[in-house]
Amino acid sequence: MHQARFKGRLIPFLFMAPTLAILVLFLYYPVFQTFKLSLYRVAFLGLRKKFIGFANFVDLFKSSAYLHTVLITLLIAGAIVVIGLSVSLAISVLANQKVRGARVYRLLLIWPYALSPAVAGVIWLFMFSPGFGIVNYLLSITVHIEPNWLGDPYLAVILIIVVSIWKNIGYNVVFYLAALQNVNADVLEAAAIDGAGPWRRFRSITFALLSPMTFFLLITNITYAFFDIFGTVDIMTKGGPIDGTNVMIYNLYRDGFQYYKTGFASAQSVILFVGVIILTIIQFRTSGKRVYYGGA
Amino acid sequence: MKRVLVLVMLGLLVFSGLVLAQQKPTEITFWHAFGGGRMHLIERMVEDFNYTHPTIHVTAEFKGSYRDTLNAAILAAQQGNAPDIVQIFEVGTQLGIDSGIFVPIQDLCVGNELHADDLIGGVADYYKVNGKYNSLPWNSSNPVLYYNKDIFRAAGLDPEKPPRTFEDMLAYSKQIVESGAAKNAISWPLHSWFFEQWMANMGEELVNNGNGRDARATESYLTGDGAKTILTWWKEMADKGYWAYSGKLEDWDGADAIFVSGQAAMEITSTSDVTQRQNDAAENGFELGTAYLPYPATTVGGRQLSGPEGVIVGGASIWITKDHPEAELQAAKTFVLWFTNTENAVRWHKATGYFPIRKSAVDVLNAEDWFQTNPAYKAAFDQLLNTKPSRATQGAFIGAFPQVRTIIEQAVEKVIAGKATVDEALAEAKKLADKAIQDYNASVE
User: Fold this and answer.
1) CB of B248 within 8 Å of any CB in chain A?
2) Residue B95's pLDDT is what?
């Protein structure tokens, strides 16, 4: 097959220039700045700074509070990704059935994704508010218990996980539904004729054919679970109670923008950045190899 | 011909530009942290100012929370684009001075323009740092006890005798909860502000070096007897189900909701909510009472308390940023002096419940019999007037105050959740707070 080629080396870069300019200005330069700031003690968001080497990192790794934050983050992120993807896949398979009003179901499933994290947070906050929320009202008149959802460290963690999963289900379902519609019905039918039951057909054919999508969603969900749950945490718990939901991204924000420790926050940002990069590399090296992209 | 026409047009354009430039008033921007009703009030006041001062045009902008406003101002100053006037919360005073982006209001004033002697005691004490006003006090408040007189009656309590001490509070709470008059006795937000106020109320300083006012603070007093007394009582109130909160830190709205909905008979919150709370009471059909912040009547570490020492002024003040042309600085000064003058202090007090910060404003209110006809405002104000001036009631100065606040709040959380004893939680809080204070000091020295 003949491949078209540009003459000269300059033209491709010319076409890429706008993109590169935006990337440099809004991505690479800030990243570079963050790395640099992580080596400074900064006062007043950068009005004054002093080079202190790796002292910020040493402080972080020596702090038991920060290690707690890292563990909480891994726990919450792990739960969001694993439970979130399983539930999304289950719902997608159900929504993919040929039933009456399937389009309506699908539309309704995608809805939560259209809400901003702030709006979603406020809605759930109202529902689970201990004093006047609908959930505690219903619980009190039926089973006579009124848990303090936001005041108990364990309940608050569960609540944050549930809300974050609910919020991202729409996104996952859209992609899974699209992938499910591409699963070749002939293959499923052939398997059925060969005597494969529904579970076997799902596991060996549907799930296998979905693997590229699952892999893609795994990466996006990890990013979501590490970074995008900030809004939910900020609105619902502010990292509390007793730092129970103080995930890394929220701790970073608090140090950087509430306590004005910009250098310290930059160091945390570097750790988060490196952590997510490592996770992604592991993904590509392990499960990435097992992804079946189809074809010969 | 065409060329002539173009020249004439250009000439006209330049000329009209010059005329416009001459008539153009000095533009002043004012960043504040008040949304909702207070924002509209500020906008109306600014409109009045612009109408009466044709050479100055002020634009007021709501920039989010106190912290957001300060962040935005510092970032803007870094880019050489600072707003002329910024509202900064009281605990940001040390930060404001250290940031070096502001000019002390006192340096801009000539003669007695500031009328500092007209400021009421507590307010003047708080904002005067080393004998100097860096900013102009504006919205000022205290914590005060609000209570639902109807629930008091239902519980068999005298609605005209609100609890005065920590001990009263336990007894009253018991009666309210056990009689079933309300589910909980009281609510206040889990906020370090109340802890700080109670410390002051027993005459205890929060940090060393004269509460950070004689010299930069280097150490906190969080393991003192005062701190222990507060937390022990707080825990008892929580354990017995007397105190209710939303479960979230610094959740003012949550505490309001618990009180206004009648779930709790009392609420401790800012005096700046008097107007709002009166409206709430009218809407929900209950009679509202206000009283002083309760204090511990017993001894604190062997020291007998004779009564409450008083409360610290909370709220915010107005700062002017430097690095502007002289004319702009003068225009900004003209505005802030007008904005906090007697007439506007009266207007601000009546519309919000924040204190009238000028003695002359108090005189005007007295002449109108305002406090007689509006007793809810009186308790709040009397409490401030009866405060005994000391380093404790003046309020602490800590650069790292925002972080120290969170540390204190987490200590309270741990004690209430039963994750740590009072002594353990306070010892840990002291360690963390001291480190935060020392880190901050290292970053500005």
Assistant:
1) yes
2) 86
